[in-house]
Amino acid sequence: MSRAERVAVLGAGSWGTAFATVLGQSTAPVGARAEQIVLWSRRPEVAESVTTRHENPEYLPDVELPSHVSATTSLEEAVRESGVVVVAVPAQTVRATLARVRDHLAPDAVVVSLVKGLERETDARMSEVCAGELDLAEDRFAVVSGPNLALEIARGEPTATVVASRSNATAERVAALMAGRTFRPYTNHDVVGVEVGGVVKNVIALAVGICDGQGLGDNSKASVITRGLAETTRLAIALGGEAETMAGLAGLGDLVATCASPLSRNRSAGRLIGTGLTVDEAVAAMKQTAEGIKSVSAVVHLARQHGVEMPICEAINAVVNGELEVSTLAELLLSRNLKSEGRRA
């Protein structure tokens, strides 16, 4: 078996497991699809369940995994001889995970990020973390992002996504690995825009969840979503991304899905905060990481460095840091000087 036919997925949470399922259901021709998919899990009981019973009941209940998906608790075993390594761990643990992987990674392996967060200490996007920690060339990196709620995907409900890489060949290779009857990947070259869209939408989803928890209606939530997209676009452009990306699956599509669905971890965390729980209590009540809580400070710091106004993100950052009472948040979410909604709004 060649390395190209073996894929490692680092992280056996809901999205990592769902993505392994997508890979296992690819309709690509032999040679372009993964013949062996290995999930890395920190927890032995999860690895055992995936390998022997083809299920991950804690994160994806009632979902049967493809027979050629197995799991291990050994990072070395997961990445060994893998032509593609998929990173699906929380953003704040990516660097430490990659440091353990570095010496076992094949020299021509492609790294794919599913992570939608920024590193707090450095404000780095995951492409930057991977490049720095693995000395990874641009043509060996891709990011996958879009309206991709894990449980819906694992159940086989139709959706589309974006695979972005500076290399068209790499984007097409990764897209072929995951293309299936119900999962449609599109390729893109705008790595920055796709990453920024995936990061900031989590913060906006927190805001929408808080609105929901406070009993505010659809007008309020739609306004936050729309202005949140404007904030996301401003930051993406300032960092070198493209406005067109924000109108696509990795921008508007992901934002709508994350803000609207009860399956969204960030919306759910925001709703808990809106009902009166502290941030720590909301985090404790969540099964998996709400990346918006972890990344919002980095988003705001990055925006300030580049002179980008992001009032919704600023307000959520103040709530997360305990500097603002959630009861006063609603009136601040849309607080900017009156101006045109047109360009540069």
Automatic annotation (TrEMBL):
Domain Glycerol-3-phosphate dehydrogenase NAD-dependent N-terminal: 7-170
Location in or out of the cell: Cytoplasm
Domain Glycerol-3-phosphate dehydrogenase NAD-dependent C-terminal: 190-329
Active site positions: 201 (proton acceptor)
One GO BP: glycerol-3-phosphate catabolic process
Binding site for NADPH: 14-15, 42-43, 59, 116, 150, 265, 291
Residues reported to bind NAD(+): 11-16, 150, 265
Any one GO cellular component localisation term in the record: cytosol
Catalysed conversion reaction: sn-glycerol 3-phosphate + NAD(+) = dihydroxyacetone phosphate + NADH + H(+); sn-glycerol 3-phosphate + NADP(+) = dihydroxyacetone phosphate + NADPH + H(+)
Gene3D superfamilies: N-(1-d-carboxylethyl)-l-norvaline Dehydrogenase, domain 2, NAD(P)-binding Rossmann-like Domain
Binding site for substrate: 116, 265-266
Pathway(s) per entry: Membrane lipid metabolism; glycerophospholipid metabolism
EC id: 1.1.1.94
Pfam family, one: NAD_Gly3P_dh_C
EC category: oxidoreductase
Keywords in alphabetical order: Cytoplasm, Lipid biosynthesis, Lipid metabolism, NAD, NADP, Nucleotide-binding, Oxidoreductase, Phospholipid biosynthesis, Phospholipid metabolism
Entries under InterPro entries matching the protein: 6-PGluconate_DH-like_C_sf, 6PGD_dom2, G3P_DH_NAD-dep, G3P_DH_NAD-dep_C, G3P_DH_NAD-dep_N, NAD(P)-bd_dom_sf
Chain positions recorded as sn-glycerol 3-phosphate binding sites: 116, 146, 201, 254, 264-266
GO MF annotation list: glycerol-3-phosphate dehydrogenase [NAD(P)+] activity; NAD binding
PANTHER family attached to this UniProt entry: GLYCEROL-3-PHOSPHATE DEHYDROGENASE, GLYCEROL-3-PHOSPHATE DEHYDROGENASE [NAD(+)] 2, CHLOROPLASTIC
Function: Catalyzes the reduction of the glycolytic intermediate dihydroxyacetone phosphate (DHAP) to sn-glycerol 3-phosphate (G3P), the key precursor for phospholipid synthesis.
Family membership noted in the UniProt record: Belongs to the NAD-dependent glycerol-3-phosphate dehydrogenase family.
Protein name: Glycerol-3-phosphate dehydrogenase [NAD(P)+]
Gene coding for it: gpsA
